[in-house]
Amino acid sequence: MTVLRIAAPLAVALLLASPAAAEGDAARGKAKAEQCFGCHGETGNSTMPNIPSLAQQPAAYTFFQLFLFREKLRNVPTMTPFVEGRSDQDLEDFAAYFAGQKLEPDPEPRDDVRFQRGAELSQRLRCASCHGAGYVGQAQMARLAGQREDYTLMALEQYQKNERTGIDTNMTAVIYGLPAADLAALAHYMAQQK
Amino acid sequence: MKLGSALTAVALLLASTALAQQPAPAQNPALPGPGMPPSHMTNMTLSPHPPVMQVTAPDKIPLNKLKVPAGFKIELWAHGMPGVRMMTRGDKGTIFGGTRIIGRVYAISDKGAQREHVILAQGLTQPNGLAFRNGALYVTAINKVFRYDGVEDKLANPGTPVEMTDAFKLPPEVHHNWKFTAFGPDNKLYFQVGAPCNICELNDNVHGQIRRYNPDGSGMEIVAKGVRNTVGFDWDPRSGQLWFTDNGRDWMSEDGPEEELNRVSQIGAHYGFPYCHANGIPDPDFKKPNPCQGVTLPVITLGAHAAALGMRFYRGNMFPPEYQNSILVARRGSWNRTQKNGYDVVRVTAGANGENPKVEPFITGFLDGNDFWGRPVDVHVQPDGSVLVSDEQNGAIYRVSYQR
Fold first, then answer.
1. How far apart are CA B6 and CA B316, in angstroms?
2. Which of A74, B18, B41, B101 is buried most, with the most CB atoms less than 10 Å from its CB?
3. Half-sphere exposure (Cβ direction) of A179: Cα atoms closer than 13 Å
4. Who among B31, B48, B338 is closest to A120 (CB)?
5. Domain extent listing, chain A
6. Do B24 and A140 touch (CB under 8 A)?
7. Where are the alpha helices (DSSP H) in B66-168?
8. Which residues have CB under 8 Å from A62's CB, separation 6+?
């Protein structure tokens, strides 16, 4: 417990120190983010298949993803027109806006078998070590709790096939060799978290 | 690479990645599974530190915190290159800098009083490995290989490189496969294919290797096996033998297994992964009888989780004579450890056969208590005998010199 008490303030300090995370302006972000709302929802709560909710995502996570889109390092053609020519400040503002929105999860009904398997796997794979207690995300690592299940599964599959570039490759390492059913169980379990 | 060709490269990359996809290897995920930490590490919230994608202004780099041995001087040599990592030098003096996530290759020209840089390529997947031969820059980006002919004469507009990816036939896994690349004294191109996991069983004929090729991608030979994650090697001027750093696994303990400095006295030797770590420590998850039998143990270990990466033998004429054939090793610094370790450059001295190895600090001060402000990744010995050190965290390169 001592470790946890020390680690939590450190994580916060790291987040604040990150130049990507500290300087976004949520109000400015909202004013510029109208084009995002069609798919991601005005409050960052997506109702569209395979489109992630952005509400309550750590600002650093969203910034890095937008940066990767803009630099064409993470290649999602539908995102390209929205980030092309945007400044780092714009990206930080978008990230700050969505970070401040409230996530309102609307998960599928719980499947006890997949939920239990997901719980076991998330322990074994130490998902919370990076994604935080309760999987609420921290710094460059995404919030998973309450994320759309279809989106999380798609992301896991893309990481496993080396089709998605992240800010780090640890995701590909953690799920290396994991069967498809286990990826599905993880996505289900995370979607059920509050 | 201009935008058009960068787009083409991305499209090619996506297409060939899809073609090269391999089914994930079978692995029994029964619980408790491999890599499960000992109880004292189970609840730790350790995670990789975020990179920096933006330019760091020179006045934000606290250079005065760095300490070097008496008589040495360290100065800011170049800056404004987010994520700069591995360095190689062109015949005309250009320093090329590779990166990981930001996907760029920088070309830095020395203008005497100052340095200027251009982004030579962008939009690549982790173009970490760079090597130079006969006027050409070789760029390795996970499983892609590009060659920029006559590059130093056209840094501002290098055009489309020759793509050599098909000749090398490299596996597509990204983890531990950001290359370190160099030409050996045998004129062969060397790089690693690391373990695509923290700890797992490997096909020794594909992963966990250092390989060498003819410069055209033919004639592949496996130089070393059982290598988890090397991101730095060099050849001993005394023997011509290859020495390399290798990073130990995570989540086994706070204090190990330590990173390694290894020597290749026999081509094809095995360095132990995943069964045997560091100075002969059996893996607690992947077990086999006599796990260290036939394994070449390190010359010396280089600290737990310290991330010993770029290394070079010192063969310049500027430093004191006792530095001749010393190995300078950049330790990027730990994440999988509560008390941070590394974040420095160390000097290793050892005989040509690895006898009497010793490690001592060379550059310290990147770590302030348990907070870091810089992450040294590579070292490069310049023709004048000074040493360049890249700092990925600040997008900067420092120069270490010695006044007689």
1. 38
2. B101
3. 10
4. B31
5. 2-99, 112-192
6. no
7. 165-168
8. A54, A94, A95, A98, A99
With an 8 Å Cβ cutoff, are B17 and A72 in contact?
A: no
Mutate to test the interface with B, among A74, A123, A168, A186 (most CBs of B within 10 A): A168
Residue among B52, B178, B338 minimizing CB distance to A3 = B338
- Per-residue pLDDT band for B38 (boundaries 50, 70, 90) equals low
Q: Which of A72, A83, A116, A165 to mutate to test the interface with B (most CBs of B within 10 A)?
A: A72
User: Nearest by CB to A162, which of B53, B172, B371?
Assistant: B172
pLDDT greater than 80 at residue B193: yes
Q: Which residues pair with B371 in a beta bridge?
A: B368
Min Cα separation B325/chain A (Å): 34
What whole-number distance in Å separates Cα of residue B393 and Cα of residue B371?
A: 13
CATH fold of A2-99: Cytochrome Bc1 Complex; Chain D, domain 2 (1.10.760)
Angstrom distance (rounded) from CA B63 to CA B397: 11
Q: How confident is the model at residue B29 (pLDDT cuts 50, 70, 90)?
A: very low
Residues 6+ apart with CB under 8 A from B153: none
* Cβ distance of B103 and A71 shorter than 8 Å: yes
- B48, A170: Cβ pair inside 8 Å? yes
- Any CB–CB contact under 8 A between B122 and chain A? yes
SS (H, E, C) B105-119: EEEEEECCCCEEEEE
Element spanning B89, H or E: strand B87-89
Among candidates B37, B54, B125 on the partner chain, residue whose Cβ is nearest the Cβ of A165: B125
Domain residue spans of chain B: 3-14+79-402
B176–A contact, CB cutoff 8 A: yes
Residue B330 to chain A, least CA–CA distance (Å): 20
A90 neighbourhood in chain B, CB within 8 Å? none
Q: Does domain B3-14+79-402 have CATH number 2.30.30.110?
A: no
CA atoms of B82 and B391, how far apart (whole Å): 9
Q: Which comes out higher in pLDDT, residue A28 or A19?
A: A28
Of A4, A72, A167, the CB nearest to B10: A72
Residue with tokens 């062969």: B188
Please give, rounded to a whole number of angstroms, the shortest distance from the CA of A143 to a CA of chain B.
Answer: 14
User: Do the domains A112-192 and A2-99 match in fold?
Assistant: yes
Q: Which of B24, B44, B173 sits opposite A129 (nearest CB)?
A: B44
Rounded Cα distance, B271 and B208, in Å = 9
**How high is the ipTM of this complex?**
0.83
d(CA B91, CA B261): 29
Distance CA A80, CA A11 (A): 31
Distance CA B122, CA B1 (A): 7
Residue B43 confidence (pLDDT): 61
- How far is it, in rounded angstroms, from Cα A117 to Cα A115? 5
Instruction: Give the minimum alpha-carbon distance from B372 to chain A in angstroms, rounded to a whole number.
Output: 10
pLDDT tens readout for residues B322-360: 999 999 999 999 999 999 999 999 999 999 999 999 999
Q: What is the pLDDT of residue B45?
A: 76
CATH topology for A112-192 is Cytochrome Bc1 Complex; Chain D, domain 2 (1.10.760)
Minimal-distance CA residue of chain A relative to B14: A163
Contact predicate B45/A128, CB 8 Å: yes
